[in-house]
Amino acid sequence: MTDNQLMQEVRDGKVEKLAVLFERHHIRLYNFLLRLTGNRNISEDLVQEVFCRILKYRTTYRGTSTFSVWMYQIARNTHIDYLRKKKEELPLDEQWQEAPSPAPSLAEQTELKEDIALVQEALSRLPLKKREVLVLSRYQGLKYREIAELLGCHIGTVKAHVHRAVKDLRKIYTELSGEAVL
Amino acid sequence: MTCHRIREKFPDFLIGDIDETTKMQIQGHLADCSTCREELESLSTIWTRLGVLPEERPSEALRSRFYTMLDAYKQVLEQEKPGPRLQTILSNGLERFWPRQPAFQFSLAMLLLVMGLTGGFLLRSTQPATAELTPLRQEMESMRTTLAMSLLDNQSASERLRGVSLSSQMKQPDSRLLETLIYTLENDSNPNVRLAAVDALYLFRDLPEVRQGLSRSLAKQTSPLVQVALIDLIVSIKEQRAIDALRSLIQDEKLDPLVKERAEQGLERLL
Predict the structure, then answer these.
(1) Containing domain of residue A161, as a range?
(2) B116-163 pLDDT, tens per residue?
(3) Residues near B83 by Cβ (< 8 Å), separated by ≥ 6?
(4) Chain A within 8 Å of B159 (Cβ-Cβ)?
(5) Which among A64, A98, A132 is the end of a domain?
(6) Could you say which of A171, B163, B171, B229 is the most buried, measured as most Cβ atoms within 10 Å of its Cβ?
């Protein structure tokens, strides 16, 4: 059964079918949110919130776009709402220092771990909009056409954003690593 | 093709979504243009470097939280379902049997009235039918408990308020739910939720664990509103064990003067 068929059944009242969609997608979704937030606990909370919203808005599912696109749309909004809420809670002076925290446990001694931490840090310094398109295309395996649908913009804009994001990331990465190799 | 047009294709090149003709065109251009070649190489390097981030797995807790949420949602759906369906069955059935003539309608109504009165009279003299209802009631209570607990765990304060109000409708809340309510009173970030928890716990004031929880949480409260509500409650149920907690509250220098006054009055009434 395809994702779309399953979600249509969830929409029509067979909510137990959401369990299959959860099993198929929760790890990918978790990693998507982890790349955006850099925090494991928050990402788990957000995955739970995304599935809560899927249930809440299940009757609005039209099946015109793929389930993945719809799910990432909800995930993106959930993440934006979370950032907004976090801003409201934080006193102003702390907001300025706020940057998505990279998972500290990753930054351990070996070379690979250092590399991972470096990439993670570079990603976290990328502005949210660029980080989103990059994560969606690089890690979530979404086609540019799907990302355009998800963001509600033209496919050419998505490609331009990805191009820009990779260039910016290269700059940040070079600064961070102090290497001139790139 | 110009350098500009070639570079527009780079994002497609990165994800490998490119047809053979375009690929050939790009390669042809790159052979002659070192700037574009270096640009694509450096983009590809960083693109590949991104691959070092491993796919991580969430903790097992995520799965169990999801299934608790799904179960609670299903229960709510099932609770809501019978209402309209029963109504349709009844109205369809009635329509079929209900006579069209007013005179017949009146006779049928009288007949039903007599039947109802007789039935009621007969039933009163026999055993009450509670025996059959008990398991059903128990099941409803346990469903409510699950739902209330999952609501109390929700991120949104209004959902947690719903959880508190649902808990207060329980006849005999089980110890897990009471613990969660006391936990909410002690730790919830929202004073309105804590205030609602005070009211809900008032209903279960006769239970020893509730009384204990109430006096214990007094020291943890920071909002004057919640403090006053809690003091009033403790005084009204004459909880002697809270005397010490009240005393140390009064000694707190940072305490709101109004709360202090209320606590002193309360202490006098308890002693």
Answers:
(1) 103-182
(2) 888 877 777 655 555 666 677 777 777 788 888 888 888 888 888 888
(3) none
(4) no
(5) A98
(6) B163
- Above 0.90 for ipTM, yes or no? no
The amino acid at residue B17 is D
User: A58, A80, A98: which is the final residue of a domain?
Assistant: A98
Question: What average pLDDT does this structure show over A141-151?
Answer: 93
Q: Which residues of A47-56 are buried (b: 16+ CB within 10 A; e: fewer)?
A: bbbbbbbbbe
Task: Tell me which residue in B45, B57, B66 faces A22 most closely, judged by beta carbons.
Answer: B66
Are residue A94 and residue A141 in the same domain, yes or no?
A: no
CB contact under 8 A, A27 and B67: no
Retrieve residue A2's tokens.
């395809």
Do A64 and A7 fall into the same domain?
yes
N-to-C CA span, chain B: 94
Q: CB pairs below 8 Å between A and B: how many?
A: 106
Q: Which of A16, A34, A169 sits opposite B56 (nearest CB)?
A: A34
Taking contacts as CB-CB distances below 8 angstroms, the residues of chain B near A162 are 11, 14
DSSP assignment letter at A16: G
User: Same domain, yes or no, for A128 and A42?
Assistant: no
Q: Are residues A107 and A93 in the same domain?
A: no
Q: Which of B3, B4, B8, B15 is best to mutate for the A interface (most A CBs within 10 A)?
A: B15
To the nearest whole Å, the CA of B145 is away from the closest chain A CA by: 19
| B245 in Cβ contact with B212 (< 8 Å) | no
Rounded to the nearest 10 degrees, what angle do helices A144-151 and A155-177 cross at? 100
How many domains are contained in chain A? Answer: 2
Average pLDDT over residues B94-112: 74
Domain ranges, ordered by start, for chain B: 3-43
CA distance A116 to chain B (A): 6
A89-140, pLDDT tens digit by residue? 755 444 444 444 455 554 445 677 788 888 989 999 999 999 999 999 999 9
pLDDT above 70: percentage of residues in chain B: 87
Instruction: pLDDT band for A146, please (50, 70, 90 cuts).
Output: very high
Q: Among B207, B183, B185, which residue's Cα sits nearest to residue B196? A: B185
- Among the residue ranges A21-25, B55-59, B162-166, the one predicted with the least confidence is B162-166
Residues A12 and A56 in one domain: yes
* Chain B residues with CB-CB distance to A11 below 8 A: none
pLDDT at A181: 47
